[in-house]
Target: Purine nucleosidase
Amino acid sequence: KRPVILDCDPGQDDALMLFLALNAPELDVLGVVAAGGNVPLTRTEINCRILVEMAGRKDVPVYAGCMGPLVEPLFTAEYVHGETGIDGIEFFEPSLPKQDQHGVDFIIDRLRAAVDESVEMVITGPMTNLAMALKKAPDIAGKIKQIAIMGGASFEAGNVTPSAEFNIYVDPHAADIVMKCGRPIAMFGLDVTHKVMTSPEIVGRLNALGSRVARSCAGMLDFFGQYDAAKYSAEGGPLHDPCTVAWMLKPDLFKLKPCHIAIETQSELTRGHTAVDFWGVTGKPANAQWAYDVNRDQFFDFLIERIGNY
Ligand code: BDR
Ligand code: CA
Model:
């Protein structure tokens, strides 16, 4: 099984990423680390425990990571995700405890204990936790096999400012550190996540699966879709975060291109912009693979098939 650490800020779409990873027979989920992002850490951490418990994976430890970005104050998105971040599910008090160890120290210890180039990372929130871990312990980079990230926008316009996608905008300094870490990176930005729009048909198929996880997915996508449907004049909303894990499990769904990707940290106007050198005009060597296309129907068939296993 492939060892993986999941770092996220649930978020309805983070929740689907977690569900996809937590029942994947291919993956050995070493731990889930919460970040402050869509909603504050006090909430994302509880959300992670609810979702891991719902997935029947109380064996997977959940950690709280960083409360907010390295430099900037935390900017949250209750206006998209609702007060809880995962509005649309039936809430319960999780019995799964939060681990005492800080999420950043967990990442450091777990990577240090691993063999070289063995652990995969999935990051679907601001990249604060891994950036902090790399700052504290630069030696861990060599343990990472690859990093699958949801973040950025290139051909597609930003979703929080004209230039920037939310996860990178919130902590551009962290994104800058991670993008320069020298390990293989696959990045799923709005160019591709805006091609996986949900619809009432998708929500209906999830609901019809009948399990608590599946009905929660349907409820969350229904909620999430309302905000985005209005915004994008579509039938639903973009299902950003599960693109990362779907690619890990079924890479053929996506098209990626090696590119040099730089993060804007200085400008007020374009803070968090991802300068994706899609046409190689800078001549700089690629530091990541940029996802630019996806087979939408096959993506949703795969997602629904996997959620159907709950
Ligand atoms: C990203 O920001 C959050 O709103 C979502 O969970 C996703 O990770 C999309 O810009
Ligand atoms: Ca997210």
User: Anything to note?
Assistant: Residues 68 and 74 are 5 Å apart (CA to CA). The pocket of calcium ion (ligand 2) is lined by residues 8-9, 11, 13-14, 38, 124-125, 241 (CB under 6 Å).
